[in-house]
Amino acid sequence: MKIQIPGLIWGLSFLAVCLSVTLTVMPQAQAASDYIVVQKNRVVIGNQSDAVNPLFRTFILPRNVNRSRNPQNSAILQYSVQSVDIAFNEIYLNPPVERCLDQSADDNQSASISLIPFETANTEIHARHSTFRANRLQSGKSCRTGSDCKQSGFCEGGFCRNRLMICSRNSAGTSTGGLDNFIIRALTIHYRLR
User: What pTM value is reported for the model?
Assistant: First the structure.
């Protein structure tokens, strides 16, 4: 078997360039290296008999969570949804008002981290990801009152905690009557440590 040197050199050069690009991009892809599962099992949200609205999930993060504003330090919300019929459903992190409000007068808008997209094939399970700045997370430092916690976090059990709120709305974007009934599961927050 005869090896052609120019082809071999070109192949090795190509491999070196690919490896260089991979190593350059890798730190950005690893923006969120640690995670916490906030809700594992399925929950129905809306106004049918077995549904809740809003759904609250509280979680605590490590004290050394990296809350840098740097975009490379973005946190990621990952979740799966099914049966989303309306485009006004939303997920909030540490909302200032802990109830679902109408889309047109939403005082929680600054806390929104994901608008749940409407699905045409709503019988299937759809995986979703949403990035947000990590400085919106509350580290799990010790506290005595809610004023010891930043980013609208709250104090419970002596530690600052985060709260996710998931809201169902109707086709007019309001939070009462005829709400969308959908299923959410595998709510996970990915973040980095300092």
Answer: 0.80
